[in-house]
Design brief:
about 150 residues, mainly alpha, 2 domains
Amino acid sequence: MQEIISNKILWSVIIALVSAQVLKVPTEWISMGTFDRKRLRGTGGMPSSHSASVTALATSIGIERGFGSAEFTIALVLAFVVMYDAIGIRRAAGRHAEILNELVQELSDTFRDGFEPKRLRTLLGHTIPQVIFGALLGILISILLHL
């Protein structure tokens, strides 16, 4: 149990992930004027908690094991894959959900009786600034935790 409590790599990932999720509420409030506590557990938005957590992981491993270590290389590659996925594939899935939601609404308007549409989640991926800010947050948290 003591090993888990003193594991700075693990704690940097957890703190980065939680920090990014918590920051989503005020950033949405500032940018959109809406206060939504559901953002604490939702995907997408500013900053990317996925980017924050994987960069915290890679940075912490780099600090503890060395930036030339195999562990750092693995974590860095994982971070790039996760961030690429957040910007590309998951963002595209969110766009598809928006279009499908529009089509479902049109069908619902056309066939009012018997058709109950279920809206798809559209906030799945991230913009490049959201991923960059999340990555910087993860790096900063790791550095601060290891000081």
